């Protein structure tokens, strides 16, 4: 029996690497956080950055905890957030082409838009202000708002509850990392789409649980349009 797809209710987008270009700022700020926490020497820093690369998409504090004891990880995270904001002010942030117009079209069609990120709420708001997006989305969620960051589904489920979504099959999740896709799959979302514009390449995304791999987050519109008449995930 074919099950008819319900009207789409929500699209959840990751932020850095999915809807705006990272340009290496996250990595530079993370390295700065490590140095501030006392990680010294090129070899030690390179090893720590390799661990970070394997944990892209997760809460930044959790990523530091993979490398450092808890107290040092917290110091590193504070330094990271401060350094990232400095880099944002110095270099700016650029949305990928078509993203803001996509948000407008989705919301105009009655589909809500939520953002999830591994950044702390204060840094998240700095990014949204830099992009002029405070009113462009329905909700933005950080790990601290939800309990746990990726790869747990908490941020997605928090958005679902906050926005009154009635059917997880009517939710699409879009992200550029393996952690994004694992979180989306665990949430039960109907579409879990990886995009190749960010941290993890196509081969990494294809090895993670997903329904689609896209060249751009803008391509999600083709999946939540009227042409999709059955559940993408079975």
TrEMBL record:
Any idea which GO molecular function terms this record carries?
phosphoglycolate phosphatase activity
Q: Name one Pfam family in it.
A: Hydrolase
Q: Which GO terms describe its biological process?
A: DNA repair
InterPro entries assigned to the protein according to its UniProt record, in alphabetical order: HAD-like_hydrolase_sf (IPR050155), HAD-like_sf (IPR036412), HAD_sf (IPR023214)
**What SUPFAM superfamilies does this protein's entry cite?**
HAD-like
Question: Which Gene3D superfamilies does UniProt cross-reference here?
Answer: HAD superfamily/HAD-like
**What's in the GO CC field?**
cytosol
- Output this protein's name: Haloacid dehalogenase
**Source organism (scientific name):** Jiangella anatolica
